[in-house]
């Protein structure tokens, strides 16, 4: 039996020489080498899908663009960005353009990996609500991403914090919002990535107005922690902040004499005092939580933070014109405050409901700033689209189409066909066939006809058509195929949540909503350029919604039957937001020429636009109508215009 080595002063044990280090599973590879973040493999082109400059578009649609440009308070140096996608991929994709250029980053990552988040979302014009569960909020996406354990959480945050460090400018600062669940781990992780010498503050947000459960045998928890680190200590931006005192205080007046601070006195030798109603902000922030009754800023988003927190951070650690980012943006508070304070911004989130909530909030802010004559910037909505899917297929599925179909069908809980009657039919579910479209494809009218013919030839009557993207206005084709072939195609969106690492539970598969609209023509005064083709003045155009039946896949089962009946009778109650691009071009971003939406304060919604849009010349045009339902799911159709 080999003799065990003797450890001592001349033969120190390896553990005795190790430095303090936070280690988690995944930090080192099988050979003991430090895993680096795969930046090159994650970088991909981003696709601009929407362009939003609401005040300018409203002026253009009504022929008042020249007056708008003369009085334009818009700032044209930068178009802000709202990006839907995995923030690791988004940040890696931003590095080429923004490496070392972001001046302030605030993140509020989920930090309770076991908590369920629910919220009530209003529907219709009354006070009715539906419960929105965790899967709908997509908080489950983050929970699944780190596998509900500390090791995967730390590795997920390590990759993202490393990318954040690379994006920060030399004067940049990072603020990380956390609480008792993970703050001790995050502090150690940040010390390693940013270096302990660049630590700035551990600020305590004391939310004194929180309601407590006094039945718990602990002191009630009433604070979060906000950690801040500089990219380069000493060169970072910091503006001293003052706050009002609850009551003015009387203080001695002090001055420096011969290098010492002494009491100031008048000519008669009396000690001088002064009344102070302000004090320097320290690292204890006494800021209330948002209450449900606060309609001034409450979006109803479960984890929304008070704007006062972001005001303090942005004013202290950036200057006007600086670039601010938030890669877990939630309800968009960072962007909204940055916009108000004259900063440029980039925001990103994994959840479609977060992107929808942020988009609506920022459009409302554009309108408000414009009406007050204050400057604002336009913003664009981006996603990673098919590039993100290609990365997922290459990284997780070994590039195989068959593996892609298998994963989709397994999440859809469908049987995989080993000997299909047609190459277009890939599975079965509840007696219906399943077709899974390609990872780079858009499911088209022609493809729908081919699938329906294959189903009819196989003796089937129904088929689920699962696709990442659908050609617009497919419902007309689907209805025609029922009459022609007796085959009902069910159009089902493949949820991007299936791409999440460690995802095991199936996410909701949404059947595409039914949407119909038509043009409304109105007479208008003669245009400056002359008359229409028939000698008459050019007509103005609006859009009327004629039908909307939402997809109900995200409605809790216990409420499904009652909601189905309401959805068929009053589908418009489920519309939260709709917009029109009056001159839509295939392959171009959707331009918001007009929009209307419900707020928690005002539940009314127009079903006919009031843009009075005037086209430059007579002819045929295509308008695109986008509707977002109360669950954050969007549906688009095109409407042919003839003026």
From TrEMBL:
One of its GO terms (molecular function) is N-methyltransferase activity. Pfam families: N6_N4_Mtase. GO terms for cellular component: cytoplasm. Keywords: Methyltransferase, S-adenosyl-L-methionine, Transferase. Residues 102-357 form the DNA methylase N-4/N-6 domain. InterPro entries: DNA_methylase_N4/N6, DNA_methylase_N6_adenine_CS, N4/N6-MTase_EcoPI_Mod-like, PKD_dom_sf, SAM-dependent_MTases_sf. GO terms for biological process: methylation. PANTHER family: RNA METHYLASE-RELATED, TYPE III RESTRICTION-MODIFICATION ENZYME STYLTI MOD SUBUNIT. Belongs to the N(4)/N(6)-methyltransferase family. This is Site-specific DNA-methyltransferase.
């Amino acid at each position: 039996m080999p003799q065990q080595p003797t450890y001592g002063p001349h033969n120190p044990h390896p553990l005795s020489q190790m430095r303090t280090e936070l280690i988690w599973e995944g930090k080192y590879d099988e050979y003991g080498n430090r895993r680096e973040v795969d930046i090159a493999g994650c970088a991909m082109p981003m696709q601009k899908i929407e362009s939003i400059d609401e005040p300018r578009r409203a002026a253009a649609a009504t022929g008042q663009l020249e007056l708008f440009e003369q009085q334009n308070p818009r700032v044209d140096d930068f178009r802000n960005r709202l990006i839907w996608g995995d923030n690791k991929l988004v940040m890696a994709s931003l590095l080429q353009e923004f490496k070392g250029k972001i001046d302030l980053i605030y993140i509020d990552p989920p930090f309770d990996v076991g908590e369920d988040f629910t919220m009530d979302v209003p529907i219709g014009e009354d006070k009715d609500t539906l419960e929105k569960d965790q899967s709908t909020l997509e908080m489950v996406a983050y929970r699944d991403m780190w596998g509900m354990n500390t090791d995967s959480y730390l590795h997920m945050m390590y990759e993202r914090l490393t990318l954040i460090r690379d994006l920060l400018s030399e004067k940049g600062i990072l603020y990380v919002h956390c609480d008792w669940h993970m703050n001790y781990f995050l502090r150690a992780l940040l010390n390693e990535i940013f270096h302990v010498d660049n630590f700035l503050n551990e600020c305590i947000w004391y939310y004194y107005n929180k309601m407590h459960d006094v039945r718990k045998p602990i002191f009630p928890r009433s604070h979060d922690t906000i950690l801040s680190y500089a990219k380069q200590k000493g060169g970072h931006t910091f503006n001293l902040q003052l706050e009002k005192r609850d009551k003015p205080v009387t203080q001695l007046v002090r001055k420096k004499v011969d290098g010492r601070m002494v009491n100031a006195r008048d000519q008669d030798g009396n000690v001088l005092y002064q009344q102070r109603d302000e004090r320097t902000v320290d690292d204890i922030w006494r800021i209330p939580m948002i209450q449900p009754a606060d309609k001034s800023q409450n979006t109803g988003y479960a984890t929304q933070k008070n704007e006062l927190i972001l005001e303090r951070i942005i004013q202290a650690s950036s200057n006007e014109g600086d670039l601010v980012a938030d890669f877990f943006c939630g309800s968009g508070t960072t962007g909204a405050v940055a916009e108000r304070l004259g900063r440029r911004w980039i925001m990103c989130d994994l959840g479609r409901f977060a992107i929808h909530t942020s988009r609506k909030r920022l459009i409302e802010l554009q309108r408000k700033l414009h009406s007050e004559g204050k400057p604002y910037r336009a913003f664009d909505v981006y996603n990673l689209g098919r590039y993100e899917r290609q990365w997922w297929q290459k990284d997780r599925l070994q590039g195989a189409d068959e593996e892609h179909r298998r994963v989709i069908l397994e999440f859809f809980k469908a049987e995989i066909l080993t000997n299909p009657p047609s190459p277009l039919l890939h599975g079965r579910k509840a007696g219906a066939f399943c077709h899974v479209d390609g990872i780079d494809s858009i499911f088209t009218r022609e493809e729908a006809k081919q699938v329906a013919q294959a189903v009819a030839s196989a003796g089937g009557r129904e088929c689920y058509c699962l696709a990442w993207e659908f050609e617009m206005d497919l419902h007309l084709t689907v209805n025609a195929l029922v009459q022609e072939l007796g085959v009902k195609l069910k159009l089902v969106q493949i949820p991007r949540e299936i791409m999440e690492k460690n995802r095991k539970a199936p996410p909701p598969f949404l059947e595409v909503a039914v949407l119909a609209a038509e043009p409304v023509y109105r007479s208008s005064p003669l245009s400056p350029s002359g008359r229409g083709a028939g000698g008459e003045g050019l007509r103005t155009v609006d859009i009327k919604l004629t039908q909307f039946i939402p997809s109900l896949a995200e409605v809790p089962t216990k409420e499904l039957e009652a909601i189905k009946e309401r959805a068929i009778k009053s589908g418009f109650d489920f519309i939260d937001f709709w917009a029109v691009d009056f001159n839509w071009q295939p392959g171009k971003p959707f331009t918001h020429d007009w929009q209307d939406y419900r707020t928690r304060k005002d539940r009314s919604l127009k079903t006919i636009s009031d843009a009075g849009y005037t086209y430059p010349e007579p002819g045929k045009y295509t308008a695109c109508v986008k509707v977002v339902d109360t669950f954050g799911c969007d549906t688009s159709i095109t409407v042919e215009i003839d003026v």
